[in-house]
Automatic annotation (TrEMBL):
GO terms for molecular function: guanyl-nucleotide exchange factor activity. This is FGD4 protein. It comes from the Eukaryota. GO terms for biological process: cytoskeleton organization; filopodium assembly. PROSITE patterns: DH_2. Residues 1-114 form the DH domain. One of its GO terms (cellular component) is cytoplasm. The gene is Fgd4_1. InterPro entries: DBL_dom_sf, DH_dom, FYVE_RhoGEF_PH, PH-like_dom_sf.
Length: 167
């Protein structure tokens, strides 16, 4: 009550939020695994259902609880922006809150970047399988820019041939 501040506290904790990028990167696979094992194993399904009935779970499914960390960083970012809008600029917490927002925004960018990289590699793997696994294109430095139907014009007789292009 004597020094109502949160910016200084968040500033100290914000660097740890970057680790959420790893969680976010593996989120889709984790959700798919839960779905697969729930369908495949009656024992697993019953255990999950029993746990979800616990009062501490608040009537939410495991998938809802798994989604919480994915939403946490954007939520912190949104709350800090709102806090700064309502905080007087001469407040003792202004600079710390501003610095916290900067760090949390970086963590949010880091998570979004991890998601994009994972999606890109997943798409490259799909293309690799479509091409008969002959050309090894799955590499973190490769990026799919565009794909789609094109018409190739033959030089000799100007006939058009349909092709599917991956750029």
């Amino acid at each position: 009550t004597t020094t109502p501040r949160i910016g200084d506290i968040l500033q100290k904790l914000a660097p740890f939020l970057k680790m959420y990028g790893e969680y976010v990167k593996n989120f889709d696979n984790a959700m798919e695994l839960v779905k697969t094992w729930t369908e495949r194993s009656p024992q697993f399904k019953f255990i999950i259902q029993d746990i979800q009935k616990e009062k501490v779970c608040g009537n939410l499914t495991l998938q809802h609880h798994m989604l919480e960390p994915v939403q946490r960083i954007p939520r912190y970012e949104m709350l800090l922006k709102d806090y700064l809008r309502k905080l007087p600029q001469d407040s003792l917490d202004w600079k710390d809150a501003e610095k916290s927002l900067e760090i949390i925004s970086t963590a949010a960018s880091h998570s979004n970047s991890a998601i994009r990289k994972t999606e890109n590699l997943k798409k490259l793997l799909e293309i690799y399988e479509m091409l008969g696994e002959e050309e090894d294109i799955v590499n973190p430095s490769n990026e799919l820019i565009k794909e789609g139907q094109i018409l190739k014009l033959a030089a000799r007789n100007t006939s058009a041939q349909e092709r599917y292009l991956f750029l």
